[in-house]
């Protein structure tokens, strides 16, 4: 039986089988660079969509953000909670971490497309990394609507987009122009540029996006 990427079992099996190739085993380097730069925003309530094992979510928590990580796969959430506990005794294993302790981060087993009912207008920031590329392309408009709906007015999306050109997926590729087309109606495009410090296996295949919900 072929299991669709729309089915949580598709992702659950990959965690259980150890075939989660999207997992870097550490926070994404561009997020570390951003949080350590003068461009980093003031901490706020933050949603991490498709948080996986929690590296990026826990990274933002160490910089004082109030983080909630969401994932379709229960195994991902359980492993994120285990990593959070491990950091109590081994905080140095989280590369690039800040000074705060990430115990305040929460991890919830959810279908992201059902978050609107529970978290409408709830977040200052949404973090995107390997979630947009994992959903079927025909759900990208739904993703944009989701992000806008769970953000507060003037809330921001901080995204690391996988802009490869390979056919098929996941990960499903996209061009920078297509990213702009999807988001520009509801978001002000503050920044969208190629990433120069991607992990080696993704060099030349990532774009950094910083978008803000348009004022009504």
TrEMBL record:
One Gene Ontology MF term: S-adenosylmethionine-dependent methyltransferase activity
UniProt entry keywords in alphabetical sequence: Methyltransferase, Phosphoprotein, S-adenosyl-L-methionine, Transferase
PROSITE patterns, sorted: SAM_MT_TPMT
Name of a matching Pfam family: TPMT
GO biological processes: methylation
UniProt entry tagged with the keyword Disulfide bond: no
Keyword Electron transport: no
Record-given protein name: Similar to thiol methyltransferase 1
Organism, scientific name: Planktothrix serta PCC 8927
Lineage of the organism: Bacteria, Bacillati, Cyanobacteriota, Cyanophyceae, Oscillatoriophycideae
